[in-house]
Design goal:
12 strands, single chain, TIM Barrel, alpha/beta
Length: 342
């Protein structure tokens, strides 16, 4: 077997010129970056809500969805900082299935990564231009970060990537917050090792260069639950889980201790309808204990226009083609409840 070279990817400079960020949009991003960073560092007491589809599969539907988030942000700006979840890469445990907009800009057509690069940049830029919001994305492939570095305000490292050395090293060069998820095993020491690595300086090979970083003090924890040897979900959003994670933070002496809690995945047992209940329990824990309130900075929520999920060729506008999501109506109600309860 061998590699089949399908097409050459143009130099980065050519791609960035073709999908350039205007000075106006750069100014929006700079302002939003500071807002998110201030929440993670504790300079702001706003509550961070990273919310959106399991995977961004359709530019029009994603922008429609984020425009609704923007209206909610305007109404809830005193208490919440909303970051749209525009995830353009989708991890697949077996390697099969839809891998996200980067791989397949049209989910019903064959992979085309070159067009995918342009597609994810167009989508992110359109989100900023039409809504004034900058997004979060997952860094599934570290080498691809160069294509979105100038348009993201938050980066997540997934449960299957957090142990990877290159992910940790690349995060050390970010200028925006990076959430490191606990691995699927639930071993919190792995997550805290990743945070430590991301907050430290490193020298390594990146995008064909020897690079040096000075560490990202905004790297922090995302609690997403775990899976035991029988494949059963074990949540870690309960009060006792948060207190234990806070103790580990203190023992490590890491900068800017912060926890974001994922209300879906193993925390919900992959039942997306549990997300509102889980969010309310987390808010109760914050009200109960001032130290938990100071530590838990926000939530991750999976939501789209239509509730649930469909197959790739399902034909329902604004419904997830990967994991199930809350509907917009459910999400809007939840956002107002979070604002009231945080």
């Amino acid at each position: 077997m061998s590699f089949i070279y399908k097409r050459a990817i143009p130099p980065l400079e050519e791609i960035l010129r073709a999908t350039s960020v205007s000075p106006e949009l750069s100014a929006v991003k700079k302002k939003r970056d500071k807002l998110v960073a201030d929440v993670i560092s504790g300079k702001s007491d706003k509550f961070l809500v990273i919310v959106g589809p399991c995977s961004a599969d359709n530019e029009d539907a994603v922008c429609d969805y984020v425009s609704r988030l923007a209206k909610a942000q305007d109404e809830l700006s005193e208490r919440l900082l909303i970051v749209p979840r525009v995830y353009t890469n989708k991890p697949r445990t077996t390697g099969e299935g839809y891998k996200g907009m980067l791989h397949q800009p049209n989910p019903e057509e064959a992979p085309n990564i070159l067009e995918g690069i342009y597609s994810i940049r167009r989508t992110h830029l359109r989100v900023i231009a039409e809504t004034g919001l900058t997004a979060a994305d997952e860094m599934l492939y570290p080498d691809n970060y160069v294509y979105v570095e100038d348009i993201l305000s938050y980066v997540a490292i997934g449960a299957r990537s957090v142990e990877n050395q290159q992910h940790r090293l690349v995060c050390s060069g970010f200028s925006v917050p990076s959430g490191m998820k606990n691995p699927t095993s639930g071993d919190l020491s792995v997550m805290f090792n990743a945070i430590y690595a991301a907050q430290s300086s490193h020298t390594f090979i990146y995008y064909g260069h020897e690079v040096e970083t000075d560490g990202n003090p905004l790297a922090h924890a995302i609690m997403r639950g775990s899976t035991n040897k029988h494949g059963e979900s074990i949540p870690n959003y309960h009060y006792e889980d948060i207190v234990r994670a806070a103790e580990l933070y203190e023992a490590r002496g890491l900068a800017n201790p912060a926890i974001i809690i994922d209300t879906n995945h193993a925390n919900s047992g992959k039942n997306y309808l549990e997300q509102p209940r889980i969010a309310k329990e987390i808010l109760h824990s914050r009200r109960y204990d001032a130290s938990v309130r100071a530590m838990v900075k926000g939530l991750l929520i999976e939501s789209y226009i239509e509730e649930g999920a469909q197959k790739v060729n399902g034909g329902v506008y604004g419904q997830s083609i990967t994991d199930g999501c809350l509907s917009w109506e459910q999400t809007e109600k939840l956002l107002f409840q979070i604002a009231d309860g945080c």
